[in-house]
Amino acid sequence: MSFLGLEGKNILVMGLANRKSVAWAVARTLEEEGANVIFSVRSQARLESVRRLVGDRRVFVCDVEKPGEIAALADSVRETVGTLHGLVHSIAFANYSEGFRPFHETRREDFLQAVQISCFSLVEVARALKPVLDPRASVVTIGISSLLVTAENYGYMSPIKAALESTVRQLAKSFSADSEIRFNAVCPGLLKTSASAGIPGYIESYLYAEKMTFRKRALTTQEVANAVVFMLSERSSGMNGASVIIDAGLGQNYFDKELIRLAMRPEPEPGAGTADDHADA
Questions:
Q1: pTM for this entry
Q2: Residue 277 falls within a domain, yes or no?
Q3: Which residues contact 54 (CB under 8 A, 6 or more apart)?
Q4: Per the structure, how many domains does the chain have?
Q5: Domain limits at 158?
Q6: Is residue 280 part of a domain?
Q7: In Å, what is the CA distance from 37 to each residue of 28, 50, 99, 236, 241?
Q8: What average pLDDT does range 241-257 have in this prediction?
Q9: Distance CA 108, CA 112 (A)
Q10: Pick from 56, 187, 81, 69: nearest CA to 137
C-alpha cells in the first residue's frame, strides 16, 4: 500500500479539456497511485476531442449549466462505480471573446454565467453526488493563488474565485452535519494551460509571474496535480475548508531585487544611447 492509500479508490475528475489540463495531470497522478479514475466533460464534442487521450476510460458528459445533466451524472456514477471516494472540480469559464473590459463594464450575463459554471456548479454537483460519496470522501476544487491581487486582465473572475473559496468553506460546514466529507481548494499561481491562453494578455502575466517566484522558474501543472492528489487522500484528513496555495513563493516575493531593478532602471532600447553618452559627444 502506498503512502497516500488511494489504491482502488473511485475518483471523479470533472473538467478535462486536453492533455495540458490540470484535470489530466491529476488523473494521471491518481492512476499512478492505483486509483480508479472516471471523467466528466462538458459536451459530446469535447468527449470526441479527448477520446484518443482517455482511451477506454469511463467518460460521462455533463454540462453543468443544465441541472438535468448534473442529475444524470449522479445516476451514471451510481450505476457505474457505486461509491465515490473523491471528486475533483476543475471547471471554470469566463467569456473573454470581446477582449479586455474594465471591471466596471462587466456585463451581467457574463458575470452570472461565470458564477454558475465556475462556482455554483460545485454546490449543485456536491448535492447531486452526496448519496454516492463515501462518508469520508474528499472534494477538491481549483482556485487561484491570491484573491487580493487586482489582475486587470483576469477581470471579473477574481471575485468569482473568491466566491468559490467561500463556497468551499460553506460546503465543508454543511456536509459536516452528517458526514466527514471534506471540501478544500487548491489555489495555484499562473499555469501554462489551454484555458489560460484565452485570457487577454496572459502570456505577459505568466512570464512576469515566473520572475516573481523564488526559484525563477514557473509553476508546473504537475506540481498542482501533486497537491490535489494529496488533498484527495486520507493523509490530508485534518484539512477541511482550506485553501492551499501553490505558487512557488510568488505571493511572498514582491521586493525581489531583479524586479525592482527592471522596474526602476529599465534596460535601454537596443542601439539607444544613454545620457552619459550624449554628454561625452
A1: 0.90
A2: no
A3: 16, 39
A4: 1
A5: 10-255
A6: no
A7: 9, 15, 36, 19, 24
A8: 93
A9: 6
A10: 81
